[in-house]
Amino acid sequence: MNLAITSSILAGKLISKLTKLGGNGGTALPGLVSTRLNPKLLSYFSKQITKSSVLITGTNGKTTTSRTLGTILATNQMSYVHNRAGSNLLRGITTAFLEKSNWDGKVNNDYGIFEVDEFVLPQALEQIKTKVVVINNLFRDQLDRYGEIETVWSRWDKSVRQVDKETFLVLNADDPNVSFLGKNTRAKVLYYGIEDPTQGSTLTPDVLDAQKCRECGTELDFEVFYASHMGVYQCPKCHLMRPHPHVSASNIKISGVDKVSFDLSLGENTISLSLPLGGIFNIYNILAAVTVAASLGLDLKAISLGLSKVQPVFGRGEKLQIDNKNLYIALVKNPSGFNEVLKLLSYEPKKKHLLIIINDLIADGRDVSWLWDVDFEKLKDTTLNVTLSGLRAADLALRLKYAHLDSRIVSPVQTNIAEALRTSLEKLKSGETLYVLPTYTAMLQLRKELESKGLKNFSLD
């Protein structure tokens, strides 16, 4: 090992220890400093993975997919490196390696599981020795950073064309933008999707980020929509069709916000599952993780054993208790995802107490115009009260005014998250639930506030 590698590892590890002593998670800075000292450090680390690294990208679902895959591997006694805290730029992945390596820079793990920012996939493929690439979905998100979805899609398309024939490319069959990426690649393509029309709708969603055939430009015909533009489709002109999924879910039953059951099919084999997760979107995340696990050689028995241990990730449908009252936290960061969360809440029959926290920091996206594409009109008959907080709470208040929510159920704006949480909880009776819908940085601020109240057992750790 040369001096450049040694010095960069030592610097990264020391910074990691110092940031943690200072009360900071240190999920990105150690990797940032180390790669500035040695730009080849990530590549050096990734070559030490003994079996395979998996890159997981997409607009929504990266964290739940990677956590699910990690649980499957861990349950089957397989070791892995994972940027578990969700820092999904290259610096965050490097930090994950620094955490796992010894002071000599040696890594002894079977697999790497890496969430990758949508825009960073090309660079990740260049620096990380990869055998599986997963692309979950593509929606409008952080327009100020990514631009429209065509910008991201073009980067992905260029990247998958360069993937070699020994690599598995795991794609969502139900997303027309994503499934088409399998047409022009040398990789071994595996598709996953839903096979249950009873869980879809024939009505065109208000937010539709894939409307035209990528082969000929004709507007697609959809037989059913499962979530936003994800569904069963074909082109009436060139007859491009949704690929048949290798891994699928059918006979789906959603019971409230925290329970889903379905039949999981892998090839010719099918098992029935019941998981403490909610929503169609989480079924897609499970299917993605199962498809990867199968590509790594695990059979359905081993996969089922791992799935029996799956729990919600903090901020992605997790329930907590505070003072005999319940918190349900669901991350919202773009119109399609927000609409799916609102649809999931409709499975709970009682009217709800809501706390919506909207920030516009860099990690959230500075442009909050997407709030106007969220179907807040659904809240009119399902909500007892709504508290608005965060840096852009006033923008949200204006949006709710145009959604014609009764002003008596919308509380005055409280930009301070701690105060908004306190007043929201005060409105609840013992045993009732507060549904908290934060953007990304608001979720992290909320986490710190909950820690200050003694709640520290978060699955984010």
UniProtKB/TrEMBL annotation:
Q: Where is the Lipid II isoglutaminyl synthase (glutamine-hydrolyzing) subunit MurT C-terminal domain?
A: 331-443
EC no.? 6.3.5.13
Q: Where's the active site on this chain?
A: D367
Reaction catalyzed: beta-D-GlcNAc-(1->4)-Mur2Ac(oyl-L-Ala-gamma-D-O-P-Glu-L-Lys-D-Ala-D-Ala)-di-trans,octa-cis-undecaprenyl diphosphate + NH4(+) = beta-D-GlcNAc-(1->4)-Mur2Ac(oyl-L-Ala-D-isoglutaminyl-L-Lys-D-Ala-D-Ala)-di-trans,octa-cis-undecaprenyl diphosphate + phosphate + H(+); beta-D-GlcNAc-(1->4)-Mur2Ac(oyl-L-Ala-gamma-D-Glu-L-Lys-D-Ala-D-Ala)-di-trans,octa-cis-undecaprenyl diphosphate + ATP = beta-D-GlcNAc-(1->4)-Mur2Ac(oyl-L-Ala-gamma-D-O-P-Glu-L-Lys-D-Ala-D-Ala)-di-trans,octa-cis-undecaprenyl diphosphate + ADP; beta-D-GlcNAc-(1->4)-Mur2Ac(oyl-L-Ala-gamma-D-Glu-L-Lys-D-Ala-D-Ala)-di-trans,octa-cis-undecaprenyl diphosphate + L-glutamine + ATP + H2O = beta-D-GlcNAc-(1->4)-Mur2Ac(oyl-L-Ala-D-isoglutaminyl-L-Lys-D-Ala-D-Ala)-di-trans,octa-cis-undecaprenyl diphosphate + L-glutamate + ADP + phosphate + H(+)
Q: Which SUPFAM superfamilies match?
A: MurD-like peptide ligases, catalytic domain
Q: Give the record's GO biological process terms.
A: cell wall organization; peptidoglycan biosynthetic process; regulation of cell shape
Which residue intervals define the domain Mur ligase central in the entry?
A: 56-198
**In its keyword annotation, does this UniProt entry include Glycoprotein?**
no
The UniProt function text for this chain reads: The lipid II isoglutaminyl synthase complex catalyzes the formation of alpha-D-isoglutamine in the cell wall lipid II stem peptide. The MurT subunit catalyzes the ATP-dependent amidation of D-glutamate residue of lipid II, converting it to an isoglutamine residue.
Subunit structure, as described in the record: Forms a heterodimer with GatD.
Q: Which family does it belong to?
A: Belongs to the MurCDEF family. MurT subfamily.
Return the protein name: Lipid II isoglutaminyl synthase (glutamine-hydrolyzing) subunit MurT
Q: Which organism is it from?
A: Candidatus Woykebacteria bacterium RIFCSPHIGHO2_02_FULL_43_16b
